[in-house]
Amino acid sequence: MRSKPQRPMFSHTESCSPFIVPLGQEAHEVAEQLCQRHSDWQKAEQVYLNSLAIYAVDYYLRCLGYRTDWKNSDSYNAITQALLDVTDLIIPDYGRLECRRVLPGSKTAYVPAEVWHDRLGYVAVCLNEALDVAEILGFFQQAHVFELPLSQLSPLNHLPSYLETHRRSEPTGEPVDLSQWLKNVFTASWHSVEEVIAAGHSELALQFRGDRGAKAGAGAADMLVASVTRTKVIELGSPDPSVLVLITLKAEQLADQPDGAIHIQIEILPVQGQPFLPVGLQLSVLNRQGEAVMQTQTQETQDGVRLEFTADPDEQFSIKISLSNVAIVEEFLV
Amino acid sequence: MHEQLELCLLQAQQAPPNSADRDLAIVQLAQQILKGRQVARPLRGQLTGIYLEIVEQARFQLQRLLEQRVDSYNYHRVLPRQWAEAIRQEVFESVLSRFCLQRLALMVQQQQPKTELYQYAICELIQAIRCSGKLARTQLSQDIYQDAVNQTLLWVCQNIQSYDPKRGEFMAWVNYRLERIGYVTQQTQRDPYTRATQGKVIRTKYQLNAMLQQLKSLDLLGWLGWYVRRLLPASGFPVLVVLVTLSSLAALIQQAPALKDTVLFNLAQELLDLPPPLVYSEDLTFLEIPQIEEVSLADTLRDYIEDDPDRLFQKHIQGRPEATFQAIALARLEGETWESLAHRYDVKIPTLSNHFRRSLTSLAPKIRAAIQQ
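Above: the input entities. Below: the structure tokens describing the complete assembly.
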């Protein structure tokens, strides 16, 4: 015989607090609009239910003070909807969160293979039978199989701190002054190559630079006065590996251009332990207005990308490194 | 979990009055009912402060109510879960007083946004407001009222820092906003009859399915009391027609479960499209779902990807020249699974699906521009 319970005893399920979102007319109108483009009933139903799940997560995130961008998510686009079972919701500055619906009484959440990558996580949303209440149960950080057991859900309470670990670095608003670098005055977040090697981020960097730097410098040896290289590790967010960004400045002094334009070389290398850069990584140079003036993208098995250009004093530019849903912008002033 | 509730309920009813067994059964029953609560949930397994107070008060009131009511519970009139939910609702409406809600609001103001504690406090506040029964009722229809409440609570979340207890009571602050939002929501509602029917069909299908679920577990009359009142006034189906149809359907579906999906879709369409919603006949024949005449997006997409006039879709997975975007997209449109495709191209599923999705995300704007009429 059990003793009389004195204090509440919490079961495993009780420690996960779901968040309830009643689905009113607005939710059903959005779902209706989104499924209208699909004449196939199964696809229309999939889009309809997916939209209700996303609506609930979108509401929840906005309650917590996050900005969301559903309209630009794949789940809002009829073409991606037609070819994928996709329920992403973009949280600007963080990434894409997948919102998977769960049937009442089900023990697993279905996550299709097309969304196993490039996601911050997978939120499980239970829609009741009459589709008037959504219950946000919790989230998974990763998905590698079709059916994820709900018993392994992380509690919803942990989502904000989890998201904060995936927040991307934003432009600080204060561009890095490159002309200072030539005077050996450096910005704290940019390190020397030696420091990066010491920190264990790369041992290949020097070798890479030796090879290619020599070739680039050969034709311009007569104008080379000073050269400086600084580097920074950029995190692209899980599951993609970090990459190493190197900026090399060469002050040019030409007879007919006495004002000292700077030759700038931007390279991206894999960090130690990664033989190649992620496929589809894009490096762009943007002008003051934010328009891309140069751009390159990695193919399969590429171990480095590089862009070179010359900038005049006081010119402002930024570099943008992007990979699928991640984009990092760094601003500079010459 | 439901069985546990039933068991506790049975034990409480069978134990002799004023016995220790009965006290224990009541305590256990209260514990079972409290488990399903939506407010004052533990944070990392811990309940503290006001949240603990709420649970303890609710537990006390619940035990007292159960002592009075457990003997009059009749299994044939209402399901244990519904009975328990009603009692829990009553208890929390009492515990979550206006003063209590105000204290919960002040708890939120003390937290740093985007932290776990903030998330906890704000979710607790929102759920508590919903469960408290302290939101002003308005003349709006159920769906529209729900939207107005959702919007109001979102507004509360976004503006919680500007609430000042010196200037007024918290729920007065919330309800003032609810009334204004309710007014605006009603003004902007679209006429329900002009809305597209596709979504309505899907929704009705689920409502019917929910009705069928009820039918399985309850006798027809018990179900009638619970569900018809809830659904029918909103949708306007003649009660008798729906009842007779549903009972025939339940029988039909038991004979041929595979038909269920199609039958429900057809029935939902019938109910919504035809002026006399559904004419009952002996053999229950349903019309085929009429196909939409204009060329569908899927067909347009299939034609465009197949022709590939802009040579966009010939990139392939490394080392698998036949696994082009085009081939994968067409197979996906035919409903081929990732397992089957992975087997055919001898590539791992994640490689295949990830490559496809990334390509599609970058191609989608071009495709959209090309196929838009």
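Note for the figure: The CA atoms of residues 266 and 307 of chain A lie 5 Å apart.
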